[in-house]
Amino acid sequence: MTRKLPRIRNLPAGMTVLAALCGAVALPPSLAAEAPRTGAPPNLDLSAPGIAWAGFVAPKEPDYAIARLFNDFASPATGLGPVTDDPAHPYANNEVAREMRTPPTYRVADLNNPAGKNLMPWVREALSKQNELVLRGRNGESREARCWETGVPAFHLNPGLMHIIQTPKEVVLFLTGRARHIWLDVPHSANPKPSWYGESVGRYDGDTLVVDTIGFNDKTFVDSYRTPHSDKLHVVERFRLVDGGNTLEVAFTVEDPGAFYQPWSGTRNRHRVMAPNSGPAEFDCSAANDDYFNIGLEPVPTAEKPDF
Amino acid sequence: MKIVSGSDIGPLFVLSAYLAACSLASAAPDISGTYWATSYSPKIRVLGGGNPPLNAAGMAAYEKNQAGLKNSSIVDKARRVCVPDGLPRVLATPYPFEIFQVPVDKVTFLYEMNHQVRGIVMDKPLPSEKTLIVDPKYNGHSIGHWDGDMLVVESAGFNDVTFLDATGLPHSDEMRTVERIRKIGNQLEDIITIHDPGMYARDWQARFVYDERNDVRLEDYACNDNHRDLSGVKGVQRH
After folding, report:
1. Low-confidence ranges of chain A (pLDDT < 70)
2. Fewer Cβ in 10 A, N or C end of chain B?
C-alpha cells in the first residue's frame, strides 16, 4: 500500500493519439467514442471541464455600481424588485468597502420604497425588528454566514464559485458545499416534502433553462436582509448565457401569497472563469463558527441529538 | 492436436488489445447514478474479520476517543454540527448518495447526509506534499483512474479531526487510502485500504456495498432537520 499508484503523467497526450487512431476505424457501437451526455442544449453547456461560475469578478478600477452587486440581486429594469438598503443607512458590503475605502456595514432594509411596501404586515414587522437589531449592532450576519441552508433565490447570492453538473436527468448547482437539485422534464410531485431548496423541476426552452420551484419550508430568507417567506413561496428562474457565453444570467420571479402582495423579480449574474483546479468540494462552515466573543451571533445549525 | 502458434494469436492479440485500449480511451466505465446502502454498522467491519490492527499509539487514541465521546469531553462534530464525516466513515452512510461523471475530468460523489461532496480528480497526480499538509480536508484530496471496470481512488491530505467510524476509531493526518470501486450488477462495491502507520500496525481493508437506486432522489439535509426514513437500512438506530 505504500507503493505509489502508477504515474500517468503522459496519459493525456497518449489518449489524444489513441482517440484519433480509434476514430479512424468504424468500431462496434459498444466501443465507439461516446461524448459525455450532459443533455444540455449546445448554447447552455454549463458543466465543461475547468469552468466555474463566479458570482463576482472584481473590476480593474474601483466601480461602485459593480461592487455593490458583490452579494446582492440586481433589480429589474421595470416592475417590483428585491428589498434594498435604506438610503438613510446605505449598505457597504466588503467589496464596496475595499474598493471605496469605506468601513463595511450591515444591511438595513428600506421598508418605505415599493419593494418594502410590497411586504405583508408580518414580513414588514419581521424586517423592522431585524433593522432595529442591526442598528444596535446585532444579527447583521447573513443566514448563510451562520451556516444555514440558504433557500431560493438567496442560494444565488454567494459571490464564490458555482459549479454546475448537467445530466439528462438533472442539473445540480454546487456552491460553498451546498447542492441544489433541479429535476428535468418531470412534473412537480403532488405533495412535495417541505425542504430548504424546495422541489425544483426544470426544462430547456431553447437555450434557456427554466426552473420552477415549490415545496419550501418556511425556515429560510429570500435575501440577505432576512426577508422571510411562507411555505407558499414559488420561484421561477431562467438560466441563460449572455455576453458571448461569458455571463450566466439567472433571472427570477418570486411569488408568495403568504408574504408578498405582488410577485417581484431580480437577476443575479455569474461570470465564466477558468478554474481547472476547483470543483464541487467539501465545506465545513460550522466547524469553527461558535460565538466566541458572545456578541449574540445566531447559533449554527446544531443537532441536539445525533441523527443516528 | 493443433498447437496455436504465436504467429496465429499475434494479430488477434493486437486487435483485441487495440479494441480494449480504444474502449478505455473513448468511454470510461459508467458508474454514475444513485446508490443506497441496505445496512449500517457504527463499528467499521474489517474485511477478513477481526478488529482494526491498532498499534500502541492507535490503541491509546481509540481509548481516549471512546472515553471522551462517552463523557462528552469530545464532541462528534460530524453529528453535532454536521461537518463532513471523513473517510472511511462517510462510506458507511445510511443515506443515499449520487455519483456524477460530468465534467469528464472528475468523478464527483455527492452524499445526502451533510451534503458532503467528494471530488475525485481523474488522471492527475496528487497535489504536492506541501498542499496536503497545509490544506488538509475531512475527506482528503483524491485522485482517480480507471483500471478496467474499476475506479481506483487514492486519497491523502486528511485533517485529524474525524473518526474512521462512529465509535471513535482514530487516524493520524498522515493516513492514506486507496479505494477500488466498481459496479457488480445492480450494486456498487467500494473496498478501501487504510494505510496509517501512525495508528495501525499494518494496512487493513473494509468493504462497503450499496444498491443502485435510481428511483431515489437525494433530499436536502440540514443538521437537526426532519430527515428521511431510514427504516429500510438495517442497523440504524435513530436517537
Report:
1. 1-36
2. N
ipTM of the complex: 0.87
From residue B115, alpha-carbon distances to A189, B153, B185, B223 in Å are: 22, 20, 27, 10
DSSP A154: G
pTM for the full predicted model: 0.88
- Please judge whether A50 and B105 are an interchain contact, meaning their C-beta atoms are less than 8 angstroms apart: yes
Residue corresponding to grid cell 471605496: A100
Quote the longest CA-to-CA distance of chain B: 76
* B14, B16, B22, best to mutate vs chain A, most A CBs in 10 Å: B22
Quick one: B124 exposed, middle or buried, by C-beta within 10 A (0-12, 13-18, 19+)? Answer: middle
Chain B positions touching A11 (Cβ under 8 A) are 123
Contact between B115 and A177 using a beta-carbon 8 Å cutoff = yes
Nearest CA in chain A to B102: A165
Residue of A nearest to B179 (CA): A1
Q: What is the pLDDT of residues A95-143, one digit of tens each?
A: 999 999 999 999 999 999 999 999 999 999 999 999 999 999 999 988 8
Residue at B117 is within a domain = yes
- Looking up cell 428589498 gives A83
> Residue B60 domain-assigned?
yes
The total of structural domains in chain B comes to 1
pLDDT at B26: 52
Q: State the smallest CA–CA distance between residue B22 and chain A in angstroms.
A: 6
pLDDT tens figures, A232-244? 999 999 999 999 9
Backbone φ and ψ for A210, nearest 5 degrees, come out as: -105, 125
The mean-pLDDT minimum among A232-236, A261-265, B11-15, B191-195 falls in B11-15
- Interface mutation vs chain B, best among A143, A147, A217, A308, most B CBs within 10 Å: A308
Domain boundaries, chain A: 51-279
CB nearest B224 (choices: A15, A49, A303): A303
Contacts of B113 in chain A (CB under 8 A): 307
Which residue segment(s) compose the domain that B108 sits in?
A: 32-212
Q: Is A5 on the interface with B (CB under 8 A)?
A: yes
Alpha-carbon dihedral sign for residues A227, A230, A231, A236: negative
